Amino acid sequence: MRYRVVIIGAGFGGIGMAIALKKAGIDDFVVLDRADDLGGTWRDNSYPGLTCDVASQLYSFSFQPWRWSRRFPARDEILRYLHALVAEHGLGPHLRFRAGVVSAAFDGRAATWQLTLSDGSELQATAVVCAVGQLGRPALPDIAGRDEFAGPSWHSGRWNHDVSLAGRRVAVVGTGASAIQFVPEVAKVAAHVDVYQRSAPYVLPKPDRPYRAAELAVFERVPVIRKADRLRTFLYGELLTSGFVLSPKLLAGPMQLWRRQLNAQITDPRLRAQCVPDYVMGCKRVVFSNDWYPALTQPHVELVTDPIDRITSDGVLTADGTARPADVIIYGTGFRAVDFLAPMRVTGLGGWRLEDAWRDGAQAYLGISVTGFPNFFLLYGPNTNLGGNSILYMLEGQIGYVLGAIRALGAGRLAWLDVRPDVQDGFTRWVTSASRRSVWETGCHSWYTTSSGRNTNNWPDHTFLYRYRVRRFDLSAYRVMPRRPAAAGTPA
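The chain above was modelled as a monomer; its predicted structure follows.
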């Protein structure tokens, strides 16, 4: 079966792209997803305490506000929002689940992408929009003996709800954004919790609360007030971003908030010292929580900073020789973010493989187009992640840009368009230069960077400047191939 557009991934990016196509009068498309429902990372992650770090008014599409119940939405409410988007815009017939893409190969002569799915079936498409995100593949740590543990263990991104933690001894490996949320919930039921920390996170207060009925009524009756609240949240994120991309000196305010919360919630000098990061704020993901530090002060919770030597059949052995028993191990160790589209195999012009193009780190013009891969577009691609604002704001700009490219293909009667190598190289040089002054390349190791320390994930400037750069599709940045004239007697 052939489509004008195939969208891979039914999370926010894929659903948003599908809505844009519908609004543009383009119905010849399908949205593929490897799972049995939509939602992307919000579907896959289901750990207790899961909420969004971005305020709800900004974590929704500008064209589709929502009656959020609180300032920071929980997972179930976000999923309801996505399902409502699908229902309102009639996307149901375009969704195809349990249809993971194994490979995508471009046929230059036919100007067609050939996609092979996990069930062995094949599809063809004029254009492919890949919206698989950056946080879909859990990263398990390379710790000796990990497979020898006799009890249940899992990654937080694939939570095992069949195992009760009540009265159990739980070992949590990692103190990233997920652990910050689920450890306080686990501590409510577990008999003992050991939290193994490699590096301390910066934890800022989270101004979360339910919306009052009067506030919701005002938002609905006076939309400009909701927009003002959205703008306020956005501007705060841009102020935080200024410290990340211009100078850490601009982080004096957030640093004060972090220090004040730490000092107020942890009085034990030793534990407080363990919670002080040894890197510049923002070099690793800044997290927001009001109950992380209090959870660590509970008598049955211990923060362990000695390195793990190995996992044993009945617990964890640390480098100082201490054996710590555990009934359950939970890995809050993040995702394989720098791998991007893996394990999907993508082949472009002349048999050029994307894994070879990205051997030294992923790169794409505006995070959207990769030279040598015509009519192939990325949403939430390389260097479009953020440290301090809403990914949905970025996605809306990307979706509009990709829609412009798809329209250009039809309006210009083009077989394909491919970003020019010099354009991509110039953009990559700018990203490299801009990243050098950012906090992400100040020496810490995080999922934002490759093993060599190169920033491949984050946008190294303010988000409003990204939206300005993608405000319209620029055909002059692309090489184009006109459609071949139809043979005599055949339809054009």
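DSSP finds 13 helices and 20 strands in the chain.
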